[in-house]
Amino acid sequence: MEKPRKRPAIPLNVQCELWARAAGRCQFRGCNRLLYKDELTQQRSNLGVISHIVSFSPDGPRGHPVRSKQLEIDIRNLMLTCRDHGKLIDDKAQVSAYLEELLLDFKHEHERRVRLATAHAEDMQTQVLILQVSVDGHDVIIDPVDAHRAIQPKFPVDENPTVIDLSGSRLPAEGEGFFALMERSITQQIQDVLSRRAGVTRASSLSVFAIAPIPLLVHTGRCLGDAQRIELYQRHRDTQSWTWKEDEEAQAFYEIVRVAEQATTERPVVLVFSISGLVSHELVAQTVGAEPCIYEIRAREPGRDFLRSRKRLELFSYEVRNAVVALRDAHYARKVIHVFAAIPAPMAIEFGRHIKSLDTPFIIYEYENSKHAYVPALRINID
Fold first, then answer.
1. Dihedrals φ, ψ of 82, to 5°?
2. Where in the chain is the domain with CATH 3.40.50?
3. What is the β-pairing status of strands 337-342 and 254-259?
4. Average pLDDT, whole number, for the chain?
5. I need a labelling partner for 70 at 20 to 30 A (CA). Which of 27, 59, 354, 375 fits?
6. Going by C-beta distance under 8 Å and a sequence separation of 6 or more, which residues neighbour residue 148?
7. Cβ partners under 8 Å of residue 52, min gap 6
8. What is the pLDDT at residue 262?
9. Is 348 helix (H, G, I), strand (E, B) or coil?
10. Would you state the CATH architecture of domain 122-233?
């Protein structure tokens, strides 16, 4: 009886090239597990195995009387996998499910994706910034893996994103001092981020992923300003993904509604954003205490899933810029503008980026569910 063939030693140069081709990740389709450290404990270890597509033994999975010997150390016949999928590939009972042609497809797809992701020039690098603040008493966690997936084909300048995590605060949003405390913390941490970016040319842009109460998102936009190249991302409720959906052609996504446009010194001026839902003009009037002059940017189809494409954000930015200029020109006496917003996070940040220190003063309101009322949360350009 012929003795079973001993597994051949894979030359070191072949092992190194295979790891490079796979970018240190499992090549089994849909896995992509990191193989040089444990994703849970972050402890570094070699968690990969080199699997044969055509077995090194004629009697092994997908083995062949002649080709097994020919391909035993050929990189074209080798896959880098995690231990779970290496065991699955080498299970003789699973050979019919994982034929040679299918495994070659797995390998080629993975290696092609790695080549595309790593072939970009320096301007395809981006710094990932995550902001997470408790909303309605619930802590927020944004998965860096989701963020890195969303920025493709760009890639992160650092393995770990910059995270501003204020979601663990025990101070309730309804409590006195919550917004002031969060505002100071965001200001300081974003200043630190921007100062570290100064003079660093590797990352051409800053990719921002944020979940927070609307006034703090507006404040974040002010801190970021419009000098930086900022790319904003939205979490889509239907898929829970941060990846932008297929872009759309420009169209009339918004309408401008003006109520009592001619302002007087007695009538408060209000800026309303009705994007995620409709803001009640009646509740706005109750909050400001008089019949207001309203300038409203309203989505033609308001809803929580409205912000599906970059084009919608781009055109919103255009409308916001026009609104801020119009308010600045109309209220040169620095009359306070009251802001009520039902708006996705990227749009709130974009609004904040357009507010300058010489603009009219703004008060940004937050809706408190417990009180069923709006309360002033953020004051801008008010001494």
1. -75, 170
2. 122-233
3. unpaired
4. 89
5. 27
6. 128, 155, 156, 161
7. 60, 61, 62, 71, 72, 77, 78, 79, 90
8. 58
9. helix
10. 3-Layer(aba) Sandwich (3.40)
Q: d(Cα 250, Cα 309) in Å, to the nearest integer?
A: 11
Pair 269, 292: CB distance under 8 Å: yes
20: left (phi over 0), alpha (psi -120 to 50) or beta: alpha
What is the DSSP secondary structure assignment for residue 94, as one 8-state letter? G
Task: For residue 117, count other CB atoms closer than 10 A to its CB.
Answer: 14
Find how far residue 226's CA is from the centre of its chain.
Answer: 19
CA distance 278 to 303: 8
By CB atoms closer than 10 A (0-12, 13-18, 19+), residue 13 is: exposed
- Residue carrying structure tokens 């090239």: 17
Residue type at 63?
G
Confidence of residue 1 (pLDDT cuts 50, 70, 90): very low
Name the one residue in this structure whose structure tokens are 């002010």: 222
Give the largest CA-CA distance in the chain: 103
Per-residue pLDDT of 228-259, as tens digits, reads: 789 999 999 888 899 998 778 888 999 999 87
